[in-house]
Structure prediction request, 393 residues.
Amino acid sequence: MSAIKIVDNVWEVGVKDADLKVFDITMETDGTTYNSYLIKGSEKTALIDCVKENFTDEFLANLREITEIEKIDYLIVNHTEPDHSGAMPAVLDLNPNIKIFCSAAAVPYVKNIINREADIEGVKDKTQLELGGKTLTFRLMPYMHWPDTMMDFLEEDGILFSNDGFAAHLCSDQLYADELTADVDYEVEYYFKCIMRPFTGYIRRNMSKLDDHEIKMVAPSHGPIFRTEPLKHINRYKQWSRDKTEEKNLISIFYASNYGNTFQIAEKLASLINDKGYSVNLIDAVDCDADEVRESIESSKAVVVGTPTFNGDAVKPVWDLMSLFSTVYSIGKKAAVFGSYGWGGEGAKMVADRFSGLKLKVYEEQYRARLIPSEEEMTSLEDFASGFTEFVG
Ligand code: FEO
Prediction:
């Protein structure tokens, strides 16, 4: 891919990775692009982001179509994940005097990537950089996708350089979304679900910053540029990242049960919590759809997980379910655990510890019943339900 002019004195200079099949280990793709942008003001030249390391030669060739690398004044690092920073050391090799602008959070990451002395400035939100007839305003957008992420708004042309935000892993000869035959809307949503969904709590706090700008074009660092309906995917992000816990008074109970004992507790607990005025989703971890679980976690004020203990551990379907908590935003959500057991009963505590590790707020009491729950044990479940719902508030 060569340098492509977007507007006067602004070029897309990135590369295509048509063969990429999996991104970030988990996201299946059919290729992507690593977009980078070069802006020439009347006084200064700025480069926004680099590309993955193994595309360095092609990237440098694209840049040289517009300028000598040594004449680039500024490197804007919006995000330090290697798909955008891999070629950064090569740029520094050729131009050791280039000044780097990035978020304050990114400064240590940049240092760890370039491993040399360099002129690095960590910027605050709304810092402006004048290039001469081209003005960049930096907006800090933490966790879109890493703590370091920022976006840049080019005031004179109304272009938002959004890095991973509003991106799609699409690889095409066309630069603009309105030229593609692919289902871009689907791909943007798929990208959001795979990459952004764990950070929705941060994203909803970031998105209002974009209301400050008259955005005419959105230029992400993967996939096509959006020059028509530029706010479409910004508004979709606002919708997807909204706080769903406010919409339903919901508590989700996930359980696995072999002989029916944990299920008996789960079913009774669902009834008791329902009596306290909450809606309840009761979901069998052994036979559930991952997306249904994610949606239920996101929509719930609190979650409860019940597991039997097998061989001194919670059971695999429960651990599989627990692995989904880090794929959505669950930090600070209230949680409790319960389970039945034969001799050790360690499973429930292990799940509680995992919840704590994921930064959920865990109700201190763990409800456990041995083998077939006795009448007395089922009565004590009422106290557990009362205490937990008070904890949820
Ligand atoms: Fe495209 Fe988070 O890197």
